[in-house]
Structure formats: structure tokens, C-alpha cells
């Protein structure tokens, strides 16, 4: 693991996700840019001191030299955005598979270069767009793909949060500090942090690609340096239109990711607050309530479900699904076997590049007087 | 009553709304442009045949000649949009108070002229933006007005419907026919029919005014002549921003009007499907669930509530609240008394003019390559 | 109308319900045992002074003497329980049809006698068990009757309220006073007031009859004279079992009537707080959400629906459905025609007798050391 | 681990729960009464073959002989009910701390003897009543304990499931087979499997103890040998009353555990399907919605929460909370330190004995003609 030392939120989440299905063992780490902190974190996590490294460079270098059956296989990188590209690139080039937190890089340029590195090295790559790990999000994608809803016409995707309603970065909140700092976060604040999740969710569920967008991007809280609120009209490659809303200043909201998709014959709705429910709506018959664990759900949903219907699975399980599917693919690949389609259903390089392109375009559109801009990569 | 003959949806709703509180008696009507139909409707409604008229002109003319204590006092006009202006204008000029279905007129020009007529005649005027009649919508406005949420920053308002997902106007559906016909409906289809409701709701609840907008307007169903889908970014006169979504092609949705408003300290959420609930959210304490009939609700909510908490009031009661408040104001005015603030809280000429301006601007923006257009009247 | 003078809750509800569909006109009344109050109420309601009577006896006597086309046809009785039997009996014997508030009488003996009078006079009779007027409750009954759920096995019905959590009857609350007073209310407090609603709902939806019960009846608030809380195990005539819960001391609850019914193949759930939704659950497929106004609903639901799907109908509309169906039956009967099955679907004498028997048995069981008592009439 | 070999549901859940917080390492096991199966399970789980044992007796014997720093510390027992007592007793007597699945034993006698053993050996003991591990259930207990609701008066607790609606035990379903088999399950079927959860939840949240009960116990599905449906009236030691409902034949229900508690001033409601929400209701102010992760929640809730508000935590996290708290207490004890009150808040021997007493009494009451029976141990 690179990053994720004491006090980091997402590092702990990654560790739980990795452990949950017993598919990974944490064997080494470079947990902080501060070697003392890295050491302390490694100790806390029960690692052998000799496998807690001062830098990721040292980690890769030393681990490469270990015998194959002892060496780390997958590098999980959970640093702030500006420290994504270099460690990920070097990890791939050092022969490791990589799991990387989103957004993929600091800039689209880096993303495109990382894509090239991944293609060249042939190493596997997973980007942790958590929401696509929920069984009912997977089901949503399958419902759309089945054609039951007819041609998709409209997409509403939203991600309202309230935690940046005040000038959090003025205080001790480390999360708030780096996420609102252009030097660490990149061109976008909220649009990078949560807008990319919404964008990814829309493309994942519909199987469509955005081709044009028009954005309204705002900095609401005084003194903030990056966007904390925004919305975008979307146009998709099949002619459908959409609205994306992402805000961090919706005071009183937690993390209420939601997507609605409408086709010619019906629609669907999924919301993280009731994550185990997928509503499938019809023009002329009652709404159907699909539930995690339902015997009628697709193989994609069932493969990502651990407990019988009625035992709520949550955010950590969704996260763990990414890790587990990635592990299944890594293991299959090592064994020279073809992974199942259900295993391969995790976000990767392509999703990362599109996410970075979303950031570039949505921020550019926010500054433009022109209504529509083309979404090109 | 003008319009609302047999088979008309909204005419029947108006009659129930008028009757519900026993504040009105239906005494005369010109129910259809077809005199036979008008007569038949009048008979069905139990009116004296001599007070069922062939035209609204005849109605006004004859009623004016009746003794004051027999003559109709309030004219309710429930015709399609292109037959709003003339009958409303003539009614006001004939000395009657007027209740008119929304959108106010066929064009903004007509609206401005009607405003002038209303000002000149001094007659009272009510426009039936139903959603502002719900007790919990009134409560929402009071919560914002109280300042508890702090300065308002963000507004999301949406009105997804699915009933025009197919080419309904190709068949017998009279509702679908006129609402999608530019000659009867005006410049806008869905934006006029339901977009204006969403717009009115946003301005009503926040007490703010839109100053700029940027719209994406679509005709989704092949063969349709007017918009059936759209969205707009909004900017308000206090600096807040918003997103408005209104669509008639969200297959599987009924009539799911919803508004969310966020200020510096908290937010609120109301949705017609759970109309008797208002969620008030806070940055640092539990969400509060306000309920119709709650002893803690404002005088505005309580005045518009008929039953104790726990007895759901619905759409017809919300509609009836407009009628009832208008009756209270008419009666007070006739008696030379000042109406209470709670009674005056119904939509009128100003809301009608702004609604027509919304239609003009949102359609113009939909056709423009420029991002923002100023909302001016 | 008998009873329902100024300040009475349920009298006003009855009047709105009667008016809502324009099927009744209020023509006369004896609104209070106090002639002055009766007069004042009649005036407020806009009645001719000569048709506001000092007593119900006078009302019946005088109205009988009016020409048939002027005379009142239906008597609505909305007095406290101890003044149900005499006015209802005399009304029937005077040749009027009767609408009576529940529970039907003060005692089971009275109920049985009233049944005999109704049978003898042939006059129509409606008991206002409001909850059976909701379209989705009617749909629930039809779903069970269709056999789709298989044989019914389990019924949960509940009616939690909180308004009697404190010693309300110690103050000015007139509602609380008579409802907790054995001389006015009868043998039961909460079990009569709301327990009978729950009981009626269970028998109505399932089409079954209770044959045995075992009750736990409590007086929770100190000083109260009648039960304010209770529960009963039920056994039905097809072998199904059930649990009924009704309480008035569930602090913080409004009027949260709910019923769940389970058969061999599926179940259903309806709750007044989301009155326009009926959940139909299945062993092996997604839950279906039936909605008021849905094109797929039964003729019984559709007949009792006024507005398109998505326009919430509430308590007053449910109440009005009882009045409207009764009016349709009265009118058909007067015209010598057979009423439609959908019109006849309102609670009547039989339901009233069973409700009074429920009160007798549930109170008796509450006092008994024996577990089960037979429910016999 | 004792039991929980391939194909067992709850064994896998225990393993995830143990791993999730990295507080346990699975080091040895006797996974099945069939040594081959045990071996295969151990292999699958990546254990050293020499620490996969044929029997639990062998496991304890061999592990005791290992050096203290290698030896297993906590035994987790996840066998069917009839194989709880012996392995648990022997584990305690062999010097191990024990985690045991519920219900604690096959009979109350065994439970009382196990209590005696635990007292005597001083070893720690945890019984996995999962629902008490949810942060919002812990919050519920704290809300009651704070006295804010006033004296508790009424408790409704329910656990409707549908999975035994058909004669599942007639087929291959191993879960169904042992849970409906008196020789493996004990005196009760559903009352033991899920009724004990409901009972424990009621006592845990209220802090009260049941002193009397009256039950209606049924076998609904033909051919079944143990109860699959039941309900009980409860009386608590402070005078409050309650209703407990547990059924396995509510076709279409998943695992919908729910509790409602009402005091003099307010009430609360928690339901597993929306596990991260606790509704706190008040007589005279809006309902408050407490949420997992809310800054206003108690130290007990926060200690059991891993992610910020808005990231749903589910069943596995609730289960993991039991394991984690037990680990914290074991570690503290080993270190000679006093565990924090938050850590000690897991179900133990006392809860196990009361659960077994519940089974005895509820089944006895189900067979009795007498209404109330005393709940004594």
C-alpha cells in the first residue's frame, strides 16, 4: 500500500475492502511521505518492520528483489491526487498490478500517459469508483443492457453532499485541506472528488458515452480555491440527454448519490441511501423493487452479494467487490485462465481516462460563454 | 365557470376544489365552445338551464344584468392556454374576480396586458399553481423566510412525468392533443405545462427571483411539435444558483414534483409523493421531519390544513386551499376588511407574468448557443 | 345531519366528504343537544333557519311532512357513541337512509337491534369505516380475492396513535373527554375508537372473519377510565392467525394505520401514511408497487379514484368515497335499478355489528385469565 | 473456529466479521463433524494443515500445548444449536475465550450450566446477537437510557421473514433442514432462530426485562415439526407492555427486523432495512432522524461506526462490531486493563440464558390455555 497512513480516511477503507473477502494480505507499505509516520503506521498494522518502506520507490525496488512467492503482487495507491501518477506508473513498470484511488491522476495528460504505460506493461489496473461495486448498481447496468427499458432517453445523476458547507479547509481537517487545494487536487475540487463518481456512474449504468456537455461550475464558500458546486447538461452518443449535479455545499446532505435512467418503456432509480434497492419503473405496470440477494437478480448482482436478501450490504462491501473482482482477475491471469465476465466488471484505465477528461471538459465549460462543448479525448 | 365541460380533467378538479370548503357555489357556466356540450355539461352539474351559456361573452353580459345578490362573483377559467387571455380580460373588465388555470396566457405579451387590466380594474386574480397550496410547501417558504437556514445557496427543483413517453397526441387523448399543439399551448409544451410549476415553486419557496438562466430543451418523442423535456440552470437575485428539471418522457414516473433548497446552515426537501412531509436538514444535528398538522408548524401551514396530523391531505386539498384563500380575500374585500396575510398567500398576476416570462426565456435559451441569458420582463 | 356542531372534528369531515363529489346537499340539521348551538351552527353552514332543528326527533318529524322532492333523503349522524342508536333507529323508522359514524352503537345489544330495524325497514345504511374507502385498500381486497397470494395465513394490523399520551381529558379537549368517558363511549376507549377500525380493515381486506381472539388491554395513562392501549391475537375462519395492535399512547405517532397480509405465495402491505401505495410482495420475484390511478388497478380502485396517478388522494377523498358510493346506491335504489358491485362496496350494518362484537369480546378477553375466547354474535 | 465448513452460511459471516477490522487471525479450525470436510475447508481457508483438526476436542487439546504466543486465544463456535453446549463448555474449561452463535444452547438447562462454567473459569464470552451491533441500535439504547423519552410504556418488536413459506426442509436446503429439526434446533424453530433476536433486541434497547408473557405459537407449513410463526404479549419489569412478532412464513418478506419503543414523552423506531437511520419521535415537535456517523450521536454509536455519515454500514459491519468489541475486551483483559464501557457493550452469557428462557417460556405459553405465564429463570 502506498499512502493511507494514520488518520487517512480512504486508506483505512481500502484496507477493510481488501481484507473483507480474505483475498488479499497486507504485506508491505509506504504509508506516508514522512518516514517516521510510515513506520508507525506499519507497526500499527502489524507489518514486519523490514517491509515498511520510507518511499514507494524503495518499496518497489526492494519488493522486486524478493522471491516471487513472497513479493507483493498488487500495489494499492491511496495518496492525494497529485501523487497518483508517479507511483502508479512506476508500479506498473516495476511489474506490479495496481489499484488506484480516483480520480486517476492530477491531469488528463497524466491519465493518457498512464493508459499508455498500462497498455505497454500489460499489468492489470483498477480504479476505485466504489459506486459501481454495489450489487444493485450492477443490476441497473444489466437491466439497461437487457434492452427491457428500450432506447435510453434521459439520465439524471446527482451527488449532493454538505460537508464543505463551511470553510473547513481553514481548520484542522486534513481531508478538506487537500481536496480543496489545486496543487494537490488538480483543476477541480468537487467535480473531481464527487463529480467524477457521478459521471462514471452514468456511463457505467447506461453503457453510453458522453459526447457533449454544458456546465455551471461554482465556488460557493468564500475563500475556497476550487469548485464546491456544479451541474452539467450531458449529451450521450445515442442521442440521450442528461443532467449531472454534484455539490459539496448542500447543507444537511450526507453522501446521497442517486441515478435515474429513463428509456422508451420504463426507467430505473438507485440511491446510495437505500443501496440494496433498485426501483424498475414501467409505463404501464407497477414499479418493481429489485433487492440485493433476490433470486431473480442477474449473475452480476449475485456474484457481488455475500449474504441472503434482507441482510443489508453497504459501502464497504461495494468497495470490497472492486478488490475481490480485481483479485479474481489477477489470480486467473497468473494461472493463465480467462476471467469470467462478472470478475472483469470493475472500473479500469479507460474509466480513469474518461473521468479525467470529464474534469477537463466540465471545468472548461464552466468558464466558457459558449453553451455546448464537445467531449473529446 | 368558463370551460371544463364533460371530459375535461382540470375543470372537474377546479369544481371539487371550489366545493370542498363550501366557500363557492357553482351558479353558471359556459363549459364548451360547442353550445350543445355546454348545455349538457350544465345539466349534468345541476345548473339552472338559463344560467348555462353558449359563450363566455354571453355569460358575462347576462350575469352583469342580474341583481347583485344573485349574480356570479368569481369567474373560474379552465380552458386551454390559447383561450385564457380573452375570457380573463373580459371577466375582469366586466367586474368579476377571476381564477385562471396556469400558465396564465398564450404569450408574455398577453400576460403583461392582463396584468395591466387587473391593476386597472382592481379585481382580484388567482392563478392555480396548485403546489403552493400544500401546507408543507407553505411551511417550506416560512422556514426559508425565518432565516433559520441562513442565506440560500442552491435550489434543485424537478418535475418528472412519464405520460408523454409515447406519441399520445396521435390518438384520442384530448389532454395530450392540446398540450402538445403550439396553436393551443403556446411557445412551450412541457416547459409551459409543468416547467412553470417547477419555476413557480422555486421562487415561491425561496422568496427569490431568477435573474439568469441557461436551458437545454428537447423534443424527445418523434413527431411531437413542442418540447417534452428540458432542464435549466438558474441564477437567483441573491447569488444562489439552481437546477430545474422538467420532463414528460420519464417513463414510469407519475407526477413527482420535488424541491430541495440549501442554505448556509441547513436545507429542506419536499416531494409531492409524500406531500405531508417536509424534511428540514441541518449541518450538525438530526434532520427534522415536519408534518402537516403538526402543532409546531407555522400559521400559514395550519391555516391550510383541515384535519389533525396523520390524516393525509392531498392534491385536491392543495387545490382547494387556493380557492379557499381567494374566497376569503374576496369576501373580506367585499366587506371592506383587510384580508389576513395567510389568506393572501395565493399565486396571482405577478406569478403569472413571471411564469410566462419563464416560458419565453427558457425556450429562447434552448435555441441559443450562448450560455446564459438574462431573465428580464 | 345530526350532531357535528361547531367545534366537532368528525362532523366537519363528514360535511366535506358529502360535498366533495357534489352528490349531496346539506339541507337540514340538528347539530347539537343545545338548541342555541344547533341554530348557530346551521347559520354558519348557510342553512335556512326553518330547517335547523332543536332535536333530531323534531328534524325527522318535520322533514317527513315536507313534499318528497324537498325532504331530506339521507340522515348523517355524527354524535358521540352513546347517541348513535336512538337517532339511527328513529331515522330508519322515519323512512330515511342513514350514514352513521363508527363504532355503530354504545353496545352490541343496540347494534343487533339496529340491524333488525334496518332489515325491517329496508332502508340503506352506511357506517363510516373510512380506511376501506382508500383506493389502495380496495385494491388490496381485490388482490386477496383474486387468489394470487394463495390461501391467507397471517394478518398484522396496527393502529398506533400518540394523542392520548397525556391526560388530555383533564383539560378542554372535548374529543378526549367523550372518547375516554365510559358513559359516552361505551365499554371501550381506544379499542372502540381505533381498534374497531383495525378490526374492520383486517376483515375487509382479507374477506375473512375472526372466530377467536386473545387480548391484552391496558389503561396506561393514570386517571383514565377506559383502555388507551391494547393488542389481540386473532384466529380467522380459514385457519389464518393474526395480530391486532391499537394504541393511543404511542407518543410521537400520528395515525399510522397499517395492514400486512401474507398468503402462501405472497403478501401485501398498506399504510395510511403512504396511502396511495400498495406493496404486493412475492416469494420469488420483485415486490410490485401498486399506485392509486395506475392503469393496471382493479375497477374497484379506479371507481374510487378522482385524479390521474401522481396526484395524491387522501383521507378526505377516502371518506368521500363512502359517501359517494352510498349516494350511488341510494339513487339507484330510488330509480329501481340495481347498483354496481363497486358502488355497494361500503361498510354497512353487518360491519357495524361485527365491530360492536369485537369491542365486547376484546374487552372481555382483556379481563379474562383464559387465553382464547370465541368470537360469536 | 468450530463448525462453519463449506456451505455453511453463518460460518462465512463470522469469518468476515472477524477479519473486517483486522482484529483476529484465523489460525485453526475443526470445521465439520466429517474430518474430510474439515480438512477441505481448512485448505480452502488457507490454514496450515496441522492446525485443521478432526474434532473440537482435538483442537482444544493440541492448541493448549502450543506456546502461548502461537496458541489460539478465542474459539468461535458456529455449529447448529445442539452442538453449542459441549464445545463451548470445553473451550472455556480449556482456557479459551468463546464466541458462540445464538441461541446459546439446546436447552435452558445447558444454558444455566454454561453460565456457571463461564463464571467459574472467568473466561470471556460473546453471543452473536447481531442486531445489537448496529450503531443505530446502540444509539436507540442510549436514547432510552438518557431518559429523554420518559418512562417506557410500550414496545413493539417484530421479525418477519418469508423464506420458510414452503416446505424447504423437504429439499436440499441444509439451513432449512437443521433449523426445523427438533433434534438439532431444540424446543423451538422460528422462536429460537429469530424470536430470540427480537426478544434480545427488545431487552437491549429498553434496558428492561420481561417478567410475563402470553404467546400464540403456530406451525403453518404442513409437515413442519417446529414452530414457523408466533407472537407474544410481553410485560416488562417497569410495568410496560409489549408485542413481539416473529414469523418465517411472511411470504415476500426478507429479514425485516424492526423495533418501536414508546415512552411518556416520545418514541423511537429502528428497522434493519434502513439500518443507518433511527427515528426519534416526540409528542410535540418534529420527528428527528438520527443517522449513523452523525456528529450528534453517542460515543456508543460512534465507536461502532467505521465511515463518515452517508456511507451505509450493514449487516456484516454490525456483526464485526461484536467481534471487534470482544477483541478489545480480550486484549484489555490480557493486558490487565479495564475495558471501556463501549467495548463491553456486546451480548454475553446473561443474554444467552435469557434467550433460552424465552424459548422455554414462549413455547410453554403457546401450549397453555392460561393467558399469562411468569418469565422466571
UniProtKB/TrEMBL annotation, chains A, B, C, D:
One example GO MF annotation: nucleotide binding
Gene3D superfamilies, A to Z: Dihydrodipicolinate Reductase, domain 2, NAD(P)-binding Rossmann-like Domain
Record-annotated GFO/IDH/MocA-like oxidoreductase domain positions: 138-269
Annotated Gfo/Idh/MocA-like oxidoreductase N-terminal domain residues: 7-127
InterPro entries per UniProt: Gfo/Idh/MocA-like_OxRdtase_N, Gfo/Idh/MocA_oxidoreduct, GFO_IDH_MocA-like_dom, NAD(P)-bd_dom_sf
Record-linked SUPFAM superfamilies: Glyceraldehyde-3-phosphate dehydrogenase-like, C-terminal domain (SSF55347), NAD(P)-binding Rossmann-fold domains (SSF51735)
Pfam families in alphabetical order: GFO_IDH_MocA (PF01408), GFO_IDH_MocA_C3 (PF22725)
Residue ranges that the Swiss-Prot or TrEMBL entry lists as coiled coil: none
Protein name: Gfo/Idh/MocA family oxidoreductase
Amino acid at each position: 500500500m502506498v499512502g493511507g497512513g494514520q488518520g487517512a480516511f480512504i486508506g483505512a477503507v481500502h484496507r477493510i475492502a481488501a481484507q473483507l473477502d480474505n483475498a488479499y494480505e497486507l504485506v508491505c507499505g509506504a504509508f506516508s511521505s514522512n518516514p517516521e509516520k510510515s513506520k508507525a503506521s506499519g507497526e500499527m498494522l502489524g507489518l514486519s518492520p523490514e517491509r515498511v518502506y520510507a518511499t514507494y520507490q524503495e518499496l518497489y525496488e526492494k519488493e522486486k528483489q524478493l522471491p516471487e512467492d513472497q513479493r507483493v503482487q498488487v500495489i494499492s495507491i491511496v495518496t492525494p491526487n497529485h501523487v497518483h501518477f508517479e507511483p502508479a506508473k512506476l508500479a506498473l513498470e516495476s511489474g506490479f498490478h495496481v489499484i488506484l484511488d480516483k480520480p486517476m491522476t492530477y491531469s488528463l495528460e497524466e491519465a493518457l500517459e498512464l493508459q499508455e504505460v498500462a497498455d505497454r506493461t500489460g499489468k492489470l489496473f483498477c480504479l476505485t469508483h466504489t459506486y459501481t461495486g454495489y450489487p444493485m448498481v450492477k443490476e441497473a447496468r444489466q437491466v439497461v443492457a437487457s434492452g427491457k427499458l428500450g432506447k435510453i432517453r434521459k439520465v439524471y445523476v446527482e451527488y449532493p453532499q454538505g460537508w464543505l458547507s463551511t470553510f473547513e479547509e481553514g481548520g484542522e481537517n486534513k481531508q478538506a485541506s487537500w481536496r480543496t487545494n489545486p496543487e494537490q487536487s488538480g483543476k477541480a475540487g468537487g467535480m473531481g472528488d464527487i463529480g467524477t463518481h457521478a459521471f462514471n456512474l452514468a456511463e457505467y449504468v447506461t453503457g453510453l458515452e458522453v459526447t457533449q456537455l454544458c456546465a455551471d461550475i461554482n465556488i460557493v464558500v468564500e475563500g475556497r480555491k476550487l469548485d464546491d458546486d456544479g451541474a452539467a447538461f450531458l449529451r450521450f452518443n445515442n442521442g440521450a440527454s442528461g443532467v449531472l449535479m454534484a455539490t459539496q455545499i448542500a447543507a444537511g446532505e450526507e453522501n446521497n448519490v442517486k441515478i435515474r435512467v429513463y428509456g422508451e418503456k420504463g426507467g430505473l432509480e438507485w440511491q446510495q441511501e437505500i443501496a440494496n434497492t433498485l426501483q424498475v419503473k414501467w409505463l404501464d405496470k407497477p414499479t418493481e423493487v429489485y433487492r440485493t440477494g433476490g433470486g431473480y437478480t442477474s449473475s452480476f448482482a449475485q456474484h457481488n452479494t455475500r449474504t441472503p436478501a434482507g441482510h443489508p450490504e453497504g459501502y464497504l462491501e461495494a468497495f470490497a467487490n472492486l478488490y475481490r473482482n480485481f483479485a479474481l482477475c489477477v489470480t486467473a491471469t497468473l494461472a493463465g485462465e480467462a476471467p469470467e465476465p462478472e470478475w472483469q466488471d470493475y472500473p479500469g484505465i479507460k474509466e480513469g481516462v474518461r473521468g479525467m477528461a470529464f474534469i477537463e471538459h466540465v471545468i472548461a465549460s464552466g468558464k466558457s460563454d459558449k453553451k455546448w462543448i464537445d467531449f473529446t479525448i
